[in-house]
Write a structure and sequence with these properties.
There is one protein chain. The chain is α+β, with helices and mostly antiparallel strands. The chain has nine helices and five strands; from the N terminus they run αββαβαααααββαα. α5 crosses α6. The longest helix is centred in the last third of the chain and has 22 residues. The protein is globular, with a radius of gyration of 18 Å.
Length: 211
């Protein structure tokens, strides 16, 4: 890892950017490399938790940023799972994806917790009730989605990625499975997105150099 960081620092030091983000400050290398879904493109993954107010406030600037991503970059979400109390919301995320209502209910779930304050993010039963009401599906179908065959695999993967990223909180952005930044590191939500742009640009140059 020290060799990796040394090479990264050398690469960035050769670029002429005013007030360029610094490795080890505004962004860092992940604790362990994370495989991406499409190595031909640059992946940006947000690790988040529905119960996190910082993640809620990140939604608006992040969604606007995602809409402007170039064609060689794609975005995905990953529920954070550093401890069992976050599991109900991770299950809600995967259950909504299974039911095909993830995009429809994603923002609404944030709002139910942080705006309406009608949902406890650590209460799985309440999460099932909420998804049932909002999705219009039969409760049994929703319960089955929360207990699907792949759910344990998904939760284990979420926990593994959180550890591998080296994240200490959420929201955290993981760029191309190699680098992380966050509002805490960068100094704010908008700053984190600017740092992500900077890292994406350098990852793009690195990929082009290897062709």
């Amino acid at each position: 890892m020290k060799k990796f960081l040394a090479i990264l620092t050398l690469t960035l030091s050769t670029l002429s950017f005013a007030d360029a983000p610094k490795v080890g400050t505004e962004f860092d290398a992940v604790a362990q490399p994370i495989s991406t879904d499409n190595p031909a493109k640059i992946e940006v993954m947000e690790i988040f938790w529905y119960g996190c107010p910082h993640c809620y406030h990140m939604e608006e600037p992040l969604n606007a940023w995602v809409k402007k991503l170039p064609s060689d970059v794609y975005f995905k979400r990953m529920p954070g799972l550093p401890n069992p109390s976050w599991a109900p919301m991770a299950k809600a995320f995967y259950a909504m994806e299974t039911l095909g209502v993830g995009e429809k209910l994603h923002t609404k779930l944030f709002e139910a917790i942080h705006k309406q304050k009608t949902l406890n993010p650590t209460d799985e039963k309440a999460a099932i009730d909420w998804v049932t009401l909002q999705s219009g599906f039969d409760r049994l179908k929703v319960e089955q989605a929360f207990k699907s065959f792949t759910m344990n695999t998904d939760l284990n993967r979420a926990a593994q990625i959180f550890r591998a990223s080296g994240a200490t909180g959420v929201p955290t952005l993981v760029i191309d499975g190699k680098y992380i930044t966050s509002a805490t590191q960068a100094g704010g939500n908008e700053q984190a997105l600017k740092v992500a742009d900077y890292v994406i640009d350098n990852v793009r140059k690195d990929k082009a150099a290897k062709k």
